[in-house]
Amino acid sequence: MYSNFRKNQLALLAAAAVLVTCAVPAASAQGSAPQTSASAATYTFAGVGTGANAPQSAVPLAAPLLTQNESSANNPLQVVALGDSLTVGYTLGMTADATPYGYADRLYEQALYHGAAELTNFGVLGLKSNGLAAWLEAAAQGKAITAEEAQSGLSKYATTAGRIEQTTQLKDALTGADLITMTIGGNDFLPLFNEIRSREVTPEELTKLLADLVDAYKAALTASLDTIYTLNPDVTIVLADQYLPVPKPNQIIQAVTEEQYAVLQQGVADLHDELIALQSDYAAKGSNLSIVDISTPFAGKEFLLTSIREGDVHPNNSGYKIIAQQFADTIWGAYREASTLPAGVPLHIVVGGKELTGGNKPVVKNNTTFLPMRDVANALGASVTWDSKTQTATLKSEGKVVSFTIGAKTMKVNGQTLPLTTPAYLEKTGKTTSSTYLPLAALSKGLGYQVTYRKPIQTVFINE
Prior knowledge:
Layout: H1 10-17, E1 43-47, E2 77-83, H2 85-88, H3 103-114, E3 117-123, H4 129-141, H5 147-150, H6 160-164, H7 167-176, E4 179-183, H8 190-198, H9 203-231, E5 236-240, H10 258-284, E6 288-292, H11 295-298, H12 302-305, H13 317-332, E7 348-351, E8 354-355, E9 363-365, E10 368-372, H14 373-380, E11 383-387, E12 392-397, E13 400-405, E14 410-413, E15 416-419, E16 425-428, E17 434-439, H15 440-447, E18 450-454, E19 459-463
Parallel strand pairs: 1-3, 2-3, 2-4, 4-5, 5-6, 7-19
Antiparallel strand pairs: 7-8, 9-10, 10-17, 11-12, 12-13, 13-14, 14-15, 16-17, 18-19
Helix pairs in contact: 1-8, 3-13, 4-7, 4-9, 9-10
Signal peptide: 1-29
Pfam families: Cu_amine_oxidN1, Lipase_GDSL
Protein name: Lysophospholipase L1-like esterase
């Protein structure tokens, strides 16, 4: 549960945090899509948003929702991130031209460890559950809608107006999605902050206010889920609960009383239980809904996982990593981290979920990444032949025959000549030996693999 009122007094900010959602300042938070794809893979940043999500305990499942993506470069796992500023990946001080790296971005990387995947992000700043419901309903009906029609006051957030108008894109993405992740609800609880700020609120009053807001949130959330399942009955939806970033009252910080804090803690726990009940209700109808607990990992670690110390209750980088871990544990049963790169190695190469560990390291020249052809071919199960007379390497994989001639700005794919921006070259790997190095783009263009570069973790993913 979080809010984003940036006041100078930490106590007041912590009280705002009670509210389940951070509202990013209207003129500040919009991120552009990271350029993560070397070829077939795509990352679409469809919007920005504010949301509050106070993690509670992640719901353990009997088994992961997914193990290995049943996907290929021609049919990647379609992931849609939907919701508020947590979906955007907003962090304190993020500007309009910043590239966010939130939980959805990290979760996209986890998907790539399991196979070909594409992510479309529909995070929207300031979005409440009723605004999401209205937006989804308009999309389902094929109607355009303005930000103000979706939710009063929503248009004040940077670029939100244009995002909400993208109802056609939203409908298409939801209809084609295999997996939808959601964070929504924090902004719904802002009235609690207004009450706590304006007057003394007894625990009994706070309990009643919170219960009324939860009822309204559940109604809007259910409407959103129903709309999504009408569009795509077979999709898997993974929804986060809410975390409470306000620290427990102590001698230094007393944003709320002990009694109010107890009410808020209980409210977070009760909301989690109600979401679990909602999960059961949808399971009974044959729908795939899972609740992710992000409140438990944040409890007692508010200063470590949010920017509350600086007056903002959004997660920091550590907080977003925790959220991504909770989602990944629910979806795949594990969260995988990139190891530290050895000295002299510019990036990780992950082929079909396994890190390339051949004797030849990748090379970066003139902002172009080159990979050792034989090591990659072995990892992909492709065969390689070398014609020393013509200095031509030929790979055979999945019914394709691709030839590269050293220094040539063309390649042959099943006999057809195609252009190459950067040619293959020979890299000396020993006193008397050399290895053929291919430009990264050749793997996707020639062999049809999905090749995706993720700068935050210095990793290239190659998936069939």
